[in-house]
């Protein structure tokens, strides 16, 4: 079994991937600068604190652990923040990926599975497959397009980019989950409102061209996303395809999500309607047939109610004081 370097391994999705790698007999080496992650989520292998923009530190870590492959998640991931700080996203997500690829080249590591995002597509009223036109609406989305281009431009690299639709849920055993700053991500935000920690949940726009006017997203369980990375690691040995959507093919509006959270928590959620935010596409729902057939990949938790129940159980375990501000 192999050492796998997981950049962003102290984050929400990265820590779940580390757990899945360890369960499959690998040693996940979490490489993270802890800007948004938590050392307490590094539980399944060694931790190396470092930045993906720091080539010398990466070289040291490659030498020490001699990983067979890299799973690359490190980056900033908030659409709204990227609109106000585009340069931060270019430097961290795009330049960081270039530095990582250079370090891999120098160390002779030629396999990588990287996190991309449904945001590269812009918006669509139909299911999106991998051939849909790219139309990034935010600097965050743009950084993912440029990351994919960097992977494609690297000669001799075996790579797969997974375009996740919205990650949701938490580890059912409550070993890891999302600990984002208050107000930044939609499901923890709804929980906080349900718990009375926020006066109201803000709906950012109810005049989108969707059935109830609120944004529609395809939620994907974090454990299913983690599983897909393991399948992708095996696939990239010989597989010719590079880009796969990960989603359930079912769209949920923000209003439907609120109802689902109310049902799981048994609490009423107050809402306030605000303006649309720049950078938010109206609707993003995956056609993930290619991943299903090719990796292959079959989500174990496709139901939104399961995702919310797992996330709620985790959310109640984590003290608010832990959360970092973006
Ligand atoms: N959460 C989602 O719904 C979603 C959807 C699509 C794609 N993604 C992508 O998945 C990846 C992981 O997202 P997440 O939700 O787990 O976010 P997260 O913020 O929990 O994890 C990202 C991790 O990367 C680390 N990091 C950031 N910049 C770094 C740097 N320069 N060097 C080293 N470490 C750095 C952070 O400290 C954090 O631990 C990101 O690339 C994100 O864009 C997430």
What does this structure look like?
- This protein is α/β, with parallel strands linked by helices.
- The chain has a domain at 3-168 and 220-248 and 285-301: Rossmann fold.
- The protein is 37% helix and 17% strand.
- The chain has ten helices and 14 strands.
- Strand 5 (111-117), helix 5 and strand 6 form a beta-alpha-beta unit.
- Helix 4 packs parallel to helix 5 and helix 6 (186-194) crosses helix 8 (254-265).
- The radius of gyration is 19 Å and the shape is globular.
- The two termini are 36 Å apart.
- Nicotinamide-adenine-dinucleotide binds at residues 7-8, 10-14, 32-37, 51-53, 73-77, 92, 96, 115, 117, 164, 166-167.
Features:
alpha/beta; Rossmann fold; 7-stranded parallel sheet; 3-stranded mixed sheet; 14 strands
């Amino acid at each position: 079994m192999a050492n796998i370097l997981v950049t962003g391994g102290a984050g929400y999705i990265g820590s779940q991937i580390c757990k899945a790698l360890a369960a499959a007999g690998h040693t996940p080496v979490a490489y993270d600068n802890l800007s948004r992650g938590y050392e307490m989520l590094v539980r399944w292998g060694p931790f190396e604190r470092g930045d993906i923009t720091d080539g010398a530190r990466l070289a040291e870590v490659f030498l020490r652990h001699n990983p067979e492959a890299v799973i690359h998640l490190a980056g900033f991931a908030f659409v709204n923040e990227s609109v106000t700080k585009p340069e931060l996203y270019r430097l961290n997500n795009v330049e960081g990926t270039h530095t990582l690829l250079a370090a891999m080249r120098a160390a002779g590591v030629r396999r990588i599975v990287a996190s991309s995002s449904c945001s590269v597509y812009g918006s669509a009223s139909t299911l999106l497959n991998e051939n849909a036109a790219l139309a990034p609406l935010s600097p965050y989305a743009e950084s993912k397009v440029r990351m994919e281009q960097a992977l494609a431009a690297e000669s001799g690299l075996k790579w797969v980019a997974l375009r996740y639709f919205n990650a949701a849920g938490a580890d059912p055993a409550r070993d890891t989950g999302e600990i984002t700053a208050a107000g930044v991500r939609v499901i923890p935000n709804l929980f906080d409102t349900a718990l009375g920690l926020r006066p109201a949940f803000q709906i950012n726009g109810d005049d989108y061209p969707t059935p109830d006017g609120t944004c529609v997203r395809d939620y994907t369980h974090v454990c299913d996303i983690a599983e897909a990375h393991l399948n992708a690691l095996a696939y990239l040995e010989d597989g010719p395809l590079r880009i796969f959507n990960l989603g359930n093919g079912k769209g949920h509006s923000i209003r439907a999500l609120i109802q689902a959270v109310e049902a799981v928590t048994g609490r009423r959620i107050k809402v306030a309607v605000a303006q649309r935010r720049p950078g938010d596409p109206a609707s993003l729902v995956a056609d993930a047939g290619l991943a299903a057939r090719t990796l292959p990949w079959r989500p174990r938790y496709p139901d939104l109610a399961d995702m919310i129940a797992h996330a709620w159980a985790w959310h109640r375990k984590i003290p608010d004081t832990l959360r970092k501000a973006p």
